[in-house]
Design goal:
By secondary structure, the protein is mainly alpha-helical. About 60% of the residues lie in helices and about 0% in strands. The longest helix is centred in the last third of the chain and has 32 residues.
Length: about 130
């Protein structure tokens, strides 16, 4: 019968000691995946923030009782942080662009209504 603790020649003294392999947990894989998705979608702003935050959260949760998170979880946290920061910057830049080009968000909203629906809001309400 096959014994995985023995080498092919049956001499257990001739085996190499393998270092313990720390498997990637599902939380670490989820953190890495969310970080990558957030980095890809960070130009949209909101999705970059959402998936970046999830990447950071899953990276921290994958640590469990260990002292340090595994390598994949650390990469997920780093990529998630980058996606989060780029998403925040994209939202700030887009609001700044609207305010610089149209004067205020209300003016942009009125222009949008007039252009697409043929009507505008003369009052100060957005709704």
């Amino acid at each position: 019968m096959y014994n995985p603790n023995e080498n092919r020649f049956g001499d257990p003294e001739d085996q190499f000691e393998r270092p313990p392999v720390r498997n990637m947990s599902t939380m670490a894989a989820a953190g890495l995946a969310c970080g990558i998705i957030g980095l890809v979608l960070c130009e949209t702003g909101w999705f970059g923030i959402m998936f970046g935050a999830l990447g950071i959260l899953f990276g921290f949760l994958s640590k469990g009782a260990a002292d340090k998170p595994c390598k994949q979880a650390r990469y997920g946290m780093i990529i998630g942080l980058v996606a989060l920061l780029i998403g925040i910057v994209m939202i700030i830049v887009s609001f700044r662009t609207v305010i610089v080009n149209y004067g205020s968000i209300q003016n942009y909203y009125n222009m949008f209504l007039q252009q697409f629906y043929g009507t505008g809001s003369s009052s100060g309400n957005l709704l």
